[in-house]
Amino acid sequence: MQGTFTLRSAFLILLLAITSYFYGLDSRFAPKNGDEYPYMHIVRLTADSGHWLPLQSEMEGLKNTKPPLLFWQGIASSSWASQWTLWNLRWPNLLYTGLTALCLFLAVRCFTTQTKTGILAAVVWLAFFSTYRYGRPFLTDPAEVFFLSLPFIGLLYWGKSALDSRLLFPLFAALCFGLALLAKSFAYIVPATFALTLYYWRWREWSLSKFIARDLLKLVFIVIVALGVFSIWFLLDPAPEAIWKEFVLGENAGKFQARSSNYVFDLFRGGDSIWMLILTTLANTGLLIAVLINTLWQCWRERRFLSIEESLLLLLIGAFFIVFSIPSQRSGRYLLPVMPAFAALIAMHWQRLSLWGFRFALVIQLIILTVLTWVGFKLQAENPLWHYSVAHWLLMAVGITLIFMGLIKSAWCKSLTLAICFISYCALNSSLAPLEGSLGRYDVQTIEAVQGKAVWIPCDYRAKDEEYRLLLPGTDLHGYPSQQANDITGLLGQYPLVAVQAPLSSSIDESLVTCPSCNIIGHRMEMRARQTPQEIEAILRGHIGEYLFVNEYLIAGPAMVPSPELNTQLSNELRKDACR
What separation in angstroms does the CA of 462 have from each of 22, 42, 282, 455, 551? Predict the structure, then answer.
């Protein structure tokens, strides 16, 4: 019973959580998944078509990659792509995340009769790195998590009345599941129905006859209505055969193919094994992974005395884990809908959890903040244009100080661990804040100079040009492989207007000696991605600026063609777009 959690602490940490989730919401460097770029691409082209369906894309095999709910959401929030900002695309997902946290709070407060435990459950879920990483960017996960979690949270909130309901709750659950399928995949009806089956069966005290007599028809009704909601996509889309080929067969059925030699081998060995699924599911908690392990161990030791709510939460987790162990492609990301259940279990066991899990988290947080502080000092010392505000250094100092206080004073350990999770997330965004200003963006003169012209940019991920579209609005963007970005002479020989990259320590002028007619239109600093193992090792040795950041120059070569018509003709004749 170490470490109290007062209502005052709960509200202060909740305020810190809200601040961290809004801070850097429109940042290009916010923790995210690379799928955001293709999704942005589909939204933009679909909006340009003037129709909700069919979905549009220039990427082969990535048109009907997901159901349309996310793309409809992006079209609406960006006013048919007329207000094209990361903020407009992301804020609906942040709303979904906030609503999930609110519903989790209400349910846990209801069955525990403690407001602070309800707040703690919501805050713990927000403190999971998976929630922060996938719950803010323009991805399918926030809506999926919200709609899949809502019926199970509702069962915990309404209790007996929901479980015995013949129509209202089944209809509510069916609509929620249907919207989840329309946001992510029809495959989620399997774990959702399996979990709901276990819920009803447990409520009937594991009596199969009672379950069949009272609840089986409810489940059949829920599945039919949910799949009916999902089928709206097929009914409204003018090309349903493309959905069947690309989404049903390609995106879903393909996940059952052997990843290496055979299915059994993949199940127990390799990167898609069941052991990796366990590890990645636990890793979804991020800094609180040891706390979660401690909680699950306590649940196992107290398995004979678990409350009905704890049993239902564990059944939900087990159902999703079993179902997603079956596909040959196994990922902890598929289990994001059960992370609120993990958070509720942690909150319910909070007072009885050992301190070792929290101290482990504090040590990891100390390493993260120390490294970020060291990198920040080094970058600011090496580059006079790289400048942090006083608030950044104050944030780092406060975070490190609180970590030591948590390690020293046991009574504060748990609360400070939770608070510093959100300070760490703020520190991640603050550490790259200079690139969000003029240092990492092209100036107005550069943007005006390339309006309507074809510009070639380095691509290390499909649809990476969607990020450059935020930096160079109004241009006709095309991609070349990012590995060629430092081959300045070769790029200038191929493209009339191209973005090239050079190490921070080198001067671009030396490369232009052989091209006296070339003209540097603009420049900025950029952070590189996908370093080689040798480059990562060099970064760890302190060569940060050399391998982590580059100077990017927008250069017009001698083949610069001012006519937009000729630019379009030239772009069609050149090699395949690397961003596609």
Answer: 27, 12, 29, 17, 22
